[in-house]
Queue: 4 jobs
Job 1
Amino acid sequence: MSGHLVTRRGLADAALAVVVGALVVTTAAFDADTTAVDHALIVLGSAALTFHRSAPLAVLAAATATGAAYVLHAHPGLIAALPVLAAVHTAARVGHRGWAAAASGAYLAAYVATDPTTQQVVEKAALLTGWFLCAVVTGLADRNWQAYLRQTEQRALEAERTREEAALRRAGEERLRIARELHDSLTHSISIVKLQAGVAVHLARKRGEEVPPALLAIQEAGGEAMRELRATLEILRTDEPSGTPAVLVERARAAGVAVELTVAGDERPLPATLDRAMYRIVQESLTNAARHAGPAKVRVRLDYGSAELVIEVDDDGAAAPGRPPTPGIGLTGMRERVTALGGTLHTGPRAEGGFSVRAKLPLEAAG
């Protein structure tokens, strides 16, 4: 897909160069004083426009130099300025306003130098000044419009990511609710059935009676049902992370968040429960920073100690000590995870501004 896009852009740039060159060459053909050197200058200046995306400053220099040389040699009309106008617009669009203005001034100086005492030349130079001003302004407007489109697309992607995270969180909560309901209802009932069948089998054998096959089947089915139910509950309660903190940091950077990751200590594989808790703490902290911190820098630090793992996520965003945030579902779930592992969690605004998350998770309890 990207290859086709590059090809289409290349063809469009070549078409622009051909159209501009054809207009200037056609106009020059009506001038009897135009020589082969003038035509060569026109072709070179127009052909340079083919590369205006990849090398805008080089194209601007080439178009200005050839255009000024053509003006000084042949004294053409206003149409001769088209290659330079296109190059000035392109340079302004990518942010080179100063170079675009300098190139415009150089071309106008060359145009006026042909005959500065003629009123017609001065009037045409004034008209060209307006053209060049329009080229610079439209280039800047195009640049701002492209930036607006990129920002809008980024916001749409961020909104989509937020919706996906909310949906995943709701799905996880629903799985846990179903698991609790199954555990509280079916587990108790199946346990009673299995227990009663076991007692009946035991009493029958104790009295020397033959155990009915149906009773043995009930006992076996009860045990099998209990094993299947426990396996189902384990699946419902499983919430495995799909990645590492480094992957989360890369995703946040791709979304436009300035994140720095630091790892201290002896980085090593962790028990599943601790690894999952670390992932979720970093994930929730980065999500909160992206939503509430504004254009802030976020620092993630993982410290692998001998007895505990310390997770720190700090940002320099909009949070202030005088305005502590109201804990939401994310922070509450984070605290529950840390508490379940016997750790400690501190969250709140920083004295110097921004928000801080600091979790200490003991390695022995997780193991």
Job 2
Amino acid sequence: MRSLRIDAVLVQAVIAGALSFAHLHDLAAAAGQTGWKAWAYPVSVDLLLVAVWQRLRTARSGLAWFWFLVALVASLGANIATAGLLDLDHVPDWLRILVAGWPAIAFLGGTLLAHSPTPAGTPAPVRPTPTAAAPQPAPEVLEREPLVTAEPVPALPEAAPAPVPAVAVPPALVDHARKVATEHRTRTGTDIDTATLRARLGVPEDLAGAIAAQLT
């Protein structure tokens, strides 16, 4: 368990605030502000001090120091007045008037501190902006080597068709083929072609071509 450490400055602040709060209450009550109104005066003085402190954090202007002195005099004056130097049973009229007018004075001071512009010599707080990403360099384009086109290969000369070997045709087959051709010419009036001759004789194609060559 974390040990508690007593801060001397914090203790002094609490004691000073409590005593000042009580003295302001007693002075307001002696000046004719009874009930809850007497408790509102110390709260008003403390709020003015808070407004001054916030203003001094951003700009140390003369306006902020002026209202700091006003709040300090109000708080310190109450401490001194209630220390026996003032007869709280017979408060002077000027003090009654000052206590009665304090709420308007404190409201004026708080409004001026909250809405007055920042002095020209004081830089306004700048909010950090996100750092823009550095532009990335464009990727290098690799130079392609020129494509080497292969030269067309010259076409080889077409080989001449091999001569058809001569087919030996028996003379008897030639005589029979001649009779078939004569019969075909008599019946159709045209010469017989190789395909018909081959079909009629039932011989291979090369042999039918050799026979047809001998019939012409």
Job 3
Amino acid sequence: MSGIWKDRPFSLVLSGGGALGIAHLGVLHDLECKDLEPAEIIGTSMGGIIGACLAIGMKETQIHERLKSFASVTKWIKFSLSGNSIVDSARIEKIFDAIFGERMMADVSIPLKIIATDLETGDKRVFAADDKVLIKDAVLATMAIPGIFEEKVMGEHVYGDGFLCENLGLRESSLQEIVAVDVVGRNSFINTLPDNFFKTFNVIEMLERSIRLLMHNQTKNILEQVDKNILLLEPDTSAFKTSHFHKVEEIRALGLGLL
């Protein structure tokens, strides 16, 4: 790969997937080792968070250290007793404020696009350099899973997680060459259905499997529509759940050696 991509600018597209998105770090590590830097970054949900960190000039080791703080969910999750979500975003906002400060979408080293969904219309919203939007606000929008994380109100619009419209933002690439990392791709499923003793566990696992299938099929359809040179990397995340933020090292390792 290094011989091809060193000669051509490429977009780095990072998917959503909750804690599974930590696997993006392994790919970033390998890109740095090969002295490869994307010409633009496109991210959804967790891919948007990691992509934004990379875009402002953070190295993989720095992003890695930041994500370790998510290993203890009590440090960033505060349950909400009102509104439309389970989690109050106050603690998460403080973390993103410490990382991005008052940087706007244009205040980056590498051009950045972050995908969110307008929860009132269902339309895709792509935050980019032309928008007078703070990076931290765009990140809060792209990760706002409806019902789980607090929706992000920006002006007259209400935004939620980008996975609802485009979990792998291939259509937003302005370049012909794309390196895309999909943590909920074909390697994110096991061949058997849940068979736990307790029905509750089966229901939860079936719900997560269903959401992964929806995102995977969404991406398959988009791949058929995009006429570009795509290097698609799909880490084997099948043994992990989207809530496994405490398994940073194990999930990061899944992205190593894919290039």
Job 4
Amino acid sequence: MIEITNKIYYVGVNDRNKNLFEGLWPLPNGVSYNSYLIDDEKVCLIDTVEVDFFVPYLKNIQEVIGERPIDYLVINHMEPDHSGSIALIKKYYPEIQIIGNKKTFQMMEGFYGIGEGTLEVKNGDSIELGKHTLNFVLTPMVHWPETMVTLDTSCNVLFSGDAFGCFGALNGGIIDSEINCDTFWLEMVRYYSNIVGKYGTPVQNALKKLAGIKLDYICATHGPVWHEYISKVVDMYDKMSRYETEPGLVICYGTMYGNTERAAEVIARAASQAGLKNIVMYNVSKTHHSYIIRDVFRYKGLIVGAPTYNTGLYHEMDVLLSELAGKDIKNHLMGWFGSFGWASKAVAEIQKWNDERLHFEAVGTPVEIKQSLTPETFAQCEALGKAMAKALLVHS
């Protein structure tokens, strides 16, 4: 039984077995599915957990309230890792009222066939539990259309759904003041950039709705309960949703026989010698793209390079550029280079991606390498690295 504050309890679970979150994102440190229970005159459960973990989840709930019934279940977000236990909760607590908005219930009917025992709320509505008052704030498209947050105005606690969440299981401690949070910061960026990143404007709208509200705790559905670091996590979300970056450079490349990789090394060395310190390099066929996307959100500069393959663009680079385009990222600088053995296409295809989908500010002159580096293309790679470094240092 873990009390956060004033009869608000953590009843969530950890998943240390899943390899890919949503079948897409690696989980080297696992993930938590967070749920919360308010023990008042009326008992209120906030969100549920993935259905595979229902047995330990139910034990956590019963450890707090014993045989008492649950009066309300608030669903802030309908993704099944948070709503998956609704049907089983209703079997154990048949009189429970499920609180959500109109779109919540449309999805609940579709996912679970549940359409009764509901209490619809609109933006700004409140309910009284006794000593606790819950206020509901709709935050559509952060990052689904039904998303909302719940504010316990009596305790200054925000139940934020996926907002302010991150990858990583909780290793004993729940509240940030009880644990070393160092491993969570980059995992918050990776979580945001890959899952929420496309929806910067809705995130900004949500932050405006919450501006000026005193918060002592933020209870997200993944990761630690934020207490000491509230200002930091809110600032991170604010910056990421405005696509604010650091003056650094991501160089990512595809390579078959090493020639494109050698060009990437020349570019990186030249950027470093020009005074740029924050440089990260990735082979797009080796590193999971979620880590590359994370760093593209962190750093303003991007240089990509790949070989021509089957008279088109090297597959993994094509996939990465598609993923980046889908995030609607703004305010970035981009350079590119490519190689070919007998048919030149990579450079033109990368430029097409930028012209039609990415719309990043082009920096430097693209470099096209036939078969392997020559003194001329070596110098062009150096020039590209220096041009990007100069542009980034001017923006810093």
